[in-house]
Specification:
Strand order of the largest sheet: 1-2-3-4-5
Distance between the termini: 27 Å
Strand content: 5-15%
Structural class: alpha+beta
Largest sheet: 5 strands, mixed
Oligomer: single chain
Radius of gyration: 17 Å
Order of helices and strands: EHHHHHHHHHEEHEE
Shape: globular
Number of domains: 1
Length: 266
C-alpha cells in the first residue's frame, strides 16, 4: 500500500491488498495451496480447538496475521529502512516475503502441542521453507537460505518472552496480537466458559491499523465493554514489550467510539 495512508480493518481479506510484488504474491499462493502447510494448520486447530478447547490457531488466523503484519511493516518502512535491508541480507520485496512467511507459518507447532509451539513451528517450517523458497528464488539459492533464517527468527520470536531482533519479526509478532476481534483473542481461553478471559475476548468488536501522527503505527482496539482492556494488557502490550519496535507503535482503546486508553510502552 503506497501513497496516502488510510485506516484498515484487521481481517482475513487484508492480505489481498499486500500482494503487489510478484514474489510476495507467488509465495502467498504457494502457501495457500500447499498440502503440507494447510493440513498442518488444520491439525493445529484439532489440537488447539478440539482438544484444548482454545480459540482458532489455524488457516484463518494465518491469513489474518499475515495481512496485519504486512500492513504494519509497510507503515514502518515508510519511516525507515527495515533490518534485513540494513544488514544487506536482502531487498525490500524479499523482506516482505520474510514477514509474510513468518506471520503465516508461526503457529504450525500447535499441531504437535501448545507447549513450546514456537520451537516446534521452526522445526516444522524448516523443510517447508527449503522447498518453497527454491521455487520463488531458483536463481539465487544463497538468498533463499538467508531468507529462511530471517523467517525462522520471525516464527521463533512471536512468543511473548522472546526478544525480536528485526523489524520484520516485530511486525509479525504484533500482528499476531491484533487478531482479537469477535472473540478471536490470542489468550487461549476455554470456549463456553464464562470468566474474564471470555468476557474480555467477546467485547472486542474490531481492530484497526493506520499511520499514526506521533508514531508510524497506530492500532485501534474497538470494544463494547471496558473488559476488553484486559486483552490489550495481556496480549498486545506483552508482545509490544519484546517486539523491538515498541517505540514505533501506539495502541489506543476505544469503547463505543470513545477513547478510553492510550498506551505506548516507552
Amino acid at each position: 500500500m503506497f501513497g496516502e495512508s488510510m485506516m484498515v480493518t484487521v481481517s482475513s481479506n487484508l492480505i489481498n491488498s499486500h500482494l503487489e510484488e510478484p514474489k510476495v504474491e507467488q509465495m502467498f499462493r504457494l502457501m495457500e495451496n500447499d498440502l503440507e502447510i494447510q493440513n498442518t494448520l488444520r491439525m493445529s486447530n484439532v489440537m488447539a480447538v478440539e482438544r484444548l478447547k482454545y480459540n482458532d490457531h489455524g488457516p484463518v488466523h494465518s491469513k489474518i496475521v499475515a495481512g496485519s503484519a504486512l500492513e504494519i511493516f509497510d507503515l514502518l518502512t515508510q519511516e525507515g529502512t527495515p533490518t534485513t535491508v540494513q544488514n544487506k541480507v536482502c531487498c525490500l520485496e524479499d523482506a516482505k516475503v520474510a514477514v509474510l512467511c513468518g506471520s503465516y507459518l508461526h503457529d504450525l507447532g500447535n499441531s504437535i502441542h501448545r507447549l513450546d509451539h514456537n520451537f516446534h513451528s521452526c522445526v516444522i517450517a524448516n523443510p517447508i521453507l527449503d522447498r518453497l523458497l527454491k521455487k520463488v528464488y531458483p536463481e539465487d539459492p544463497g538468498l533463499a537460505v538467508r531468507l529462511k533464517y530471517e523467517i525462522l527468527h520471525c516464527i521463533f520470536s512471536h512468543e511473548d518472552d522472546v526478544d525480536c531482533l528485526s523489524v520484520e519479526a516485530g511486525a509479525a509478532k504484533i500482528a499476531d496480537g491484533t487478531d482479537m476481534a469477535q472473540g478471536r483473542t490470542r489468550i487461549p481461553y476455554r470456549t463456553g466458559k464464562v470468566d474474564i478471559h471470555s468476557l474480555s475476548a467477546l467485547s472486542i468488536t474490531k481492530v484497526e491499523i493506520e499511520k499514526g501522527k506521533r508514531k508510524p503505527v497506530q492500532i485501534f482496539v474497538n470494544m463494547n465493554n471496558p473488559a476488553g482492556v484486559f486483552q490489550i494488557e495481556e496480549v498486545l502490550e506483552k508482545k509490544l514489550e519484546t517486539s523491538g519496535i515498541q517505540d514505533l507503535v501506539d495502541v489506543i482503546a476505544l469503547e463505543r467510539g470513545v477513547q478510553i486508553r492510550r498506551k505506548n510502552v516507552h
